[in-house]
Write a structure and sequence with these properties.
The structure holds three protein chains of three kinds.
Chain A lengths: L1 H16 L6 E3 L6 H12 L4 E8 L3 E8 L7 H15 L4 E5 L2 H12 L4 H16 L3
Chain B lengths: L2 H11 L5 H29 L8 H17 L2 H9 L1 H4 L2 H14 L5 H8 L5 H24 L5
Chain C lengths: L1 H23 L5 H17 L3 H8 L1 H4 L3 H18 L3 H4 L6 H17 L8
Helix pairs in contact in C: 1-2, 2-5
The chains are: A alpha/beta, B mainly alpha, C mainly alpha.
Chain lengths: ~140, ~150, ~120
C-alpha cells in the first residue's frame, strides 16, 4: 500500500513540472527562441542569478533578472555587466535590462499576457522610462 | 559623608539597566519598524507605479503618518520607554520628535508655539545632515577634480 | 521575498543597536546619537557604501535615520557630478524631501487634531 502511494506522489510531482522552465519565464514565441536561448545561456551559469524573466519583440526586448538575496550588495555592478552582455547578444534591438523588483513584476505580467507586438513595444518603452526615474 | 562617598553609595544602590537587555529591546523594536517598512515598500511596488528605487519616499512618508497616529494617542512614548534607540533611530522617531513637539506647544499658539518649537528636537538631525552632506560632496568633488577618485 | 524581510529586520535592528550602544556606553543624548548616525550615513555614501546596503537590506537601510544623511549626500553628489560646484547645494533636497515634508505636515495635522498630553479630542 505504502509503495503505491509513494509511486503516486512521484508521478504527480513529475507530471506537475510539465516542461515549464523554472529558471526563465518568457513570452514564448517560436520566432525568438534563438534569442531566448542566447540570453538563457549567458545568465544560467551566473551564480548570482535567481531567475530571469524576458519578453521579446522584433524591435525590442526587456530582461528582468532576479538577484539572489545575499548577492544583492553588488546588484548595481552586476546589472551593468549583464546589460552590456545582453546588448551585445541582441545588437539590433532596443534593450531594457533591469534587476529592479518592479520591472521584474511588470515583465512577468507582460510574459503571461498575449499582447500585440506594437503594444509590447510601447510597454517596453514605458518601462524603460520608469526605470530611469529618480524620485 | 563627603560628596564623592555619597556618589559612590548612590551608584552602588541604584538599579543598573542591563546594556545587553537594552540592546536586545532596541534590536527587536527597530527590526519590527523596519519590517513594517519593508512590507509597506512591497505594497507600493506591487500596487502602485513605484520602482524599488523610488518606493523609499512614499514608504518614509507612510511611516511618519503611522508615527503621527502613535504619537497622538500617546503610544509612542510607551514604545520609547521600552525600546530606547529602537524607537528613536527609525524615521518614525524623527517624526515623533517633530509631531510631539507640535502637539505639546499648540497651547502657545500656532505661529509661535507650533511653528517656533517644531524643530526643537529634530533640528540637530537636519542641520548636521545637511552640513555633513555638503562636506562629503565637496570633498568628493575636489578629489574627482584632482583626478584621485571616480564618481 | 521572505529572506529579504528577515534581512531588513536584522540590518534595521543592528543599526538601532548601534544607536543604543552610543546612548548607553557612549553616554550620549538621543540628539547626539541621531546626529552621529545621520553624519555616518552621509560619510558612508561618500564611500559608495550606503547604496549597496539599501540594495541588500531594503527597508532595513531606508528606515533608520542614517538613510537621511545618505539621501542628502547622494543628491548633492549626483548634482555635483552633473553641474559642478553649485550642484552640491542644489542637489541636496532633490530626492530627500519626503521625510522632512511629511514630518512637518503631519506635525501640523497632529497639532490640529490631537490634544496635548496624548489625549484624544
Amino acid at each position: 500500500m505504502k509503495k503505491w502511494f509513494g509511486l503516486l506522489v512521484i508521478l504527480i510531482l513529475v507530471g506537475c513540472n510539465n516542461g515549464k522552465n523554472d529558471f526563465m519565464a518568457t513570452n514564448n514565441k517560436e520566432e525568438y527562441q534563438q534569442q531566448q536561448q542566447k540570453i538563457e545561456q549567458i545568465l544560467k551559469e551566473d551564480k548570482h542569478v535567481k531567475r530571469v524573466t524576458a519578453v521579446f519583440t522584433k524591435d525590442s526586448a526587456i530582461v528582468g533578472i532576479e538577484v539572489k538575496p545575499f548577492s544583492k550588495w553588488n546588484k548595481q555592478k552586476y546589472e551593468k555587466k549583464w546589460k552590456k552582455e545582453v546588448e551585445k547578444a541582441l545588437p539590433d534591438r532596443n534593450v531594457v535590462v533591469s534587476t529592479d523588483l518592479k520591472l521584474i513584476m511588470e515583465t512577468d505580467k507582460l510574459a503571461k499576457k498575449q499582447l500585440s507586438e506594437k503594444k509590447l513595444d510601447k510597454k517596453i518603452k514605458d518601462l524603460k522610462k520608469l526605470e530611469k526615474e529618480e524620485t | 559623608m563627603d560628596p564623592k562617598q555619597y556618589d559612590n553609595l548612590q551608584q552602588s544602590i541604584s538599579p543598573k539597566p542591563s546594556i545587553l537587555k537594552n540592546c536586545l529591546k532596541a534590536f527587536l523594536v527597530g527590526g519590527i519598524f523596519c519590517t513594517v517598512g519593508q512590507l509597506i515598500t512591497y505594497i507600493y511596488i506591487s500596487y502602485f507605479n513605484f520602482t524599488e528605487k523610488t518606493a523609499g519616499n512614499p514608504t518614509v512618508a507612510t511611516m511618519i503618518f503611522i508615527a503621527m497616529l502613535l504619537t497622538g494617542f500617546g503610544l509612542y512614548k510607551k514604545i520609547g520607554q521600552f525600546a530606547g534607540a529602537g524607537s528613536a533611530v527609525p524615521v518614525t522617531g524623527f517624526g515623533n520628535a517633530v509631531i510631539s513637539a507640535a502637539i505639546e506647544h499648540k497651547t502657545e499658539g500656532f505661529v509661535l508655539g507650533v511653528g517656533g518649537n517644531i524643530f526643537k528636537l529634530a533640528g540637530s538631525v537636519i542641520v548636521f545632515g545637511v552640513v555633513s552632506a555638503f562636506v562629503v560632496a565637496l570633498v568628493k568633488l575636489i578629489l574627482v577634480t584632482m583626478g584621485v577618485a571616480n564618481w | 521575498m521572505f529572506v529579504s524581510i528577515v534581512i531588513a529586520f536584522i540590518v534595521g535592528g543592528l543599526i538601532c543597536v548601534i544607536g543604543q550602544l552610543l546612548m548607553d556606553v557612549g553616554k550620549l543624548t538621543p540628539a547626539h546619537t541621531l546626529s552621529i548616525l545621520v553624519v555616518t550615513g552621509a560619510i558612508l555614501d561618500g564611500f559608495n557604501l550606503y547604496e549597496p546596503l539599501i540594495d541588500f537590506a531594503g527597508a532595513g537601510a531606508t528606515i533608520p535615520i542614517t538613510s537621511f544623511g545618505n539621501s542628502l549626500t547622494h543628491g548633492a553628489i549626483a548634482e555635483a557630478e552633473k553641474h559642478g560646484w553649485i550642484g552640491v547645494l542644489t542637489g541636496m533636497f532633490e530626492v530627500t524631501s519626503s521625510g522632512i515634508s511629511a514630518a512637518i505636515l503631519f506635525g501640523m495635522i497632529g497639532a490640529l487634531i490631537f490634544r496635548s498630553k496624548g489625549q484624544q479630542p
